[in-house]
């Protein structure tokens, strides 16, 4: 019975973990439906949970752990864009739920779990990552009531990748 209960427990933002061919890890974020996380253990470093090539200029010590954490962080980024975390900055024109990401561009008001500064929707400079390994310093975005685009010209994707890479690097050795 306990096992059944575990299998039936569901997360509102992750619909499925799957092992399949393709890139080592893949999560497609969206604002409307749960996220699917795909892992490809074909790669030797993934099967052995060993070190691999750098990503965002960070060399993983445990590639399988890093991928799980990296992709889970993408799902969390998606969650952050779909909730109201209490920031009181709603524009009267753009205001709609969810409050944490009024303009629905995945850059948000509040990130409760570190790193907390990379995904903030503001003109405050921060370092972001053009994969695989180009770090762009002093990247700014448009602010919470002007939608930044995932790719050109705003490149929200760079912030999402830097944030996921740093989160994974911070936690990959938690359970050696
Ligand atoms: Zn990623």
In N-to-C order, the SSE pattern is HEEEHHEEH
Structural class: alpha+beta
Number of strands: 5
Q: Level of helix content?
A: 25-40%
Main beta sheet strand tally, sense and closure: 3 strands, mixed
Distance between the termini: 30 Å
Overall mean pLDDT stands at 87
Placed side by side, the strands forming the largest sheet appear as 1-3-2
Number of domains: 1
Outline type:
globular
List keywords for this structure.
176 residues, alpha+beta, three-stranded mixed sheet, two-stranded antiparallel ribbon, 26% helix, binds zinc ion
Short description:
This protein has 176 residues and is α+β, with helices and mostly antiparallel strands. The protein has helices spanning 2-8, 44-47, 63-80, 156-171; strands spanning 14-19, 25-27, 35-39, 126-130, 134-139.
